[in-house]
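Re: the multi-chain job from yesterday

Posting the exact lines I submitted so nobody has to dig through the queue logs.
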Amino acid sequence: MAEFLDLKAAIAANIKSGDTVAFEGFTHLIPHAAAHETIRQEIADLTLIRMTPDIIYDQMIGMGMAKKLTFSYAGNPGVGSLRRFRDAVENGWPRPLEIEEHSHAAMANAYEAGAAGLPCAIFRGYQGAELPRVNSQITSVDCPFTGEALAAVPAIRPDVAVIHAQRADRRGNVLIEGILGVLKEAVLAAKRAVVTVEEIVDDLEPHPNTCVLPHWTVSAIATVPGGAHPSYAHGYYSRDNAAYLEWDRISADRDRFQAWMDANVINAGAEDFAHRIQHVRQAA
Amino acid sequence: MTGSDFTPTEMMTIAAARVLRNDDVCFVGIGAPSAACNVARLTHAPDITLIYESGTIGTAPDVLPLSIGDGELCTTALTTVSVPEMFRYWLQGGRMTVGFLGAAQLDRFGNINTTVIGDYDAPKVRLPGGGGAPEIAAHAQEIYITMKQSRRGMVDKIGFFTSFGHGEGGDHRQRLGIATKGPTLLITDLAIWKPNPDTKAFTVTSLHPGVSREDVQKTCGWTVAFSDNLDETPPPTALELETLRDLNARTEAAHRAEGDERQQDMVHG
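And the result, C-alpha cells for all chains:
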C-alpha cells in the first residue's frame, strides 16, 4: 500500500545496506533525486541493477556504495564513457566492482520474467556473442517442442525498485507516460517500490491503455518536482543534454568528481531539483 | 552549391543515408547511424520507419537526439512501446529490415567489439558494452555498419565478440543457426565496402571522391581487398549536403541553448 512520505523517509524505510536495488529509467524518468538521497544516507554494499547505469550509478559507484553492478550498457548515452564506472572496473577505485553483464534483450526479458514470477527468462539471443563465456549466468535451454537452443538468464527480482513518474493521485496510483523502458516490470519484479513523482493530482485522467501502477503495487511515494533532472519527465521538462556532456568533464577527475558530489549532492537536498529544471521546463 | 566542398564525415553520412529505402524498417544505433537515417528520411526516404531501442516506433526527430531516449524521439513517434516489447515483439519477432550500427572496433568479417580492450577481467579500456547490439546483429534482416576509418577501430582481430557479424567468415552464421544475412554493407568516411560472397570478408567496392587505395589501406588494420569493379561514390548533391548541414546546425543550436541557460543553475565542482 502506497505511503506518502518525504524522500528522506521513503528511502530510509525501504533501502537497507546490502540490498539489491534497481533504480530504473531508460534515459527517461531516471530517479536522480532518489539516488542522491540514497547517497546522502550512506547506504552501503548495494548490488545495483540497471540496463543503462547512466550518471546516477556512475555517482554511486564513485562514492563507493556499490559492491556489484548488473547492466547491459554502461555508457553516457551519446557522449561516451561512464568514467567512475571505468575507474572502478579498470583500477578498483574507490573499491573493486563485481560486474554481471548482459545484453539489453536479456535484461528486458529478465525484468519481465521477474514481474511474471518466473525463475528465468527464455529468448532467442546471444547468438555468436562472447558474453556467455564471461558471464556464468547466461546459459541455454532446448525448446521442448522444436529442440531449438534458446538463451536463458535468471529473472531479475530486486529487493527494491526505485523509479520516477509524472504523477500520482491521492490514493497513490501512479501514472507513467512517454518512454516506459522497464519501469513497470522493475516495480512488479521487486519486493518493494519507491516512486518519486512530479506532482500529486486529484484525478490521473487516464485513457484506457495508460500505464498506471495501482497504489497497492507501490510501497512509498515522495513528491519531488524535477526529481529526474538531468534526465527528463515527458510533459514536464526536457532532457538536459548539456548536463550529460558536462558530466563527462566532471567525472574525468577523482577530485573534481568528489568536489561536485559534495556541492551538488551531499550538501544539497531534494528541494534543489525544482530550480535545476527551470531552463528545460516545457510549456504545459 | 555544387557539392564539391564536403568533409569525409559528411560524405560518410550521406553515402550511408543513400543505402536506406523508403520502405525500410530500421533499428537505429546512436551517433553516425542516427544522422544517416534521418538524412535518408529528410531526402529520398520520407516514409522510412525509424526505430530506436527506447521503444519509439516511426520517429521523426527535428534535431538529432543525443541519447537513444531523448523526448524528441517519443513526441514525434507513431507510437512508443516498452523496452521488453521492443526487443521481444519487434526485434526478435523479425520486423526490422535493417539494423544500423556503429562500432568501436570492427574486423573484416563485420564482427563488432564495444565491450572491452584487453582481458575482460582486467581490462585496459572498459567500453560501454553491447546494449541492444548483440540481438540487433542477429535479428535484423541485414546489418549496415558505419564508422570512421582508423587503425585502432578497424583491426585484424577484435578484442571481444560483442556482436556477431560473419564470425570466421564463410557460412559461420548458418552454422550457428542464425537465419538473417548479417553485415551486408560497411560505409566509412573513405569508402563503401561489401562482403565477398564466399569469404564474407569486407571488400572495398567504391571509393569516395578524391580517396586513393592507399588512403584506405593506411587507415585500416587488415590487408584491404578491392573489388575488380571499383566504383567512385557520387559526391553529395546540393540537397543532401544542405539537409545534413541544416540538421547538424539545428542539433547544435538545440544542445547549445540548453548549455547556455543552465550555467547559473548548478554549482560547478
